[in-house]
Amino acid sequence: MGLSARWRNVVVLTVSLAILALWSFRLAGDVRAYRAARALKSAREAELERLTHQREAAREYVHKLRTDRQTQERMVRAKGYARPNEEIYVILPATPKTETSTTPAPSPETR
Fold first, then answer.
1. Which is nearest to 40 in space by CA: 50, 51, 48?
2. What residues contact 61, with CB distance under 8 A and at least 6 apart?
3. Rounded CA gap, 81 and 73, in Å?
């Protein structure tokens, strides 16, 4: 029992369309994955750039700490160190004044 040529063409076309649909869904998934990977790559490159700048700034700071006397002194003074026979005065911030009540406290006889 063979199929006529017309039905054979219909079956081939239907199977071909089904395969094309499956392939296009697969391709769409691959395109989404590619775009996600590209976005992730861009984010990683931006992070790498930021970290590279941060590393260079740290290297410059370390170089200054090793070679620049003013930077060295600024750092040790920030930690509270002083030179021999030098007194350090620390000025504390003013404490906020507590508001006193303007109404007198009730006397024992008014209770």
1. 48
2. 71
3. 9
Between CA 8 and CA 20 the distance in angstroms is 18
Give the type of residue at 7: W
How far is Cα 29 from Cα 21, in angstroms, rounded to an integer? 12
Q: Which of 38, 19, 40, 42 is nearest to 30 (CA)?
A: 38
Q: Which has more confidence, 78 or 25?
A: 78
State mean pLDDT over 55-73. Answer: 94
The stretches of 1-111 forming alpha helices (DSSP H) are 5-67, 69-78
Q: Give the pLDDT confidence score for residue 64 in this predicted structure.
A: 93
111, pLDDT greater than 70: no
Residue 99 pLDDT > 60: yes
Total number of residues shown for the chain: 111
CA distances from 10 to 3, 20, 21, 27, 43 (A): 10, 15, 16, 25, 49
Q: pTM of the predicted model, to two decimals? A: 0.48
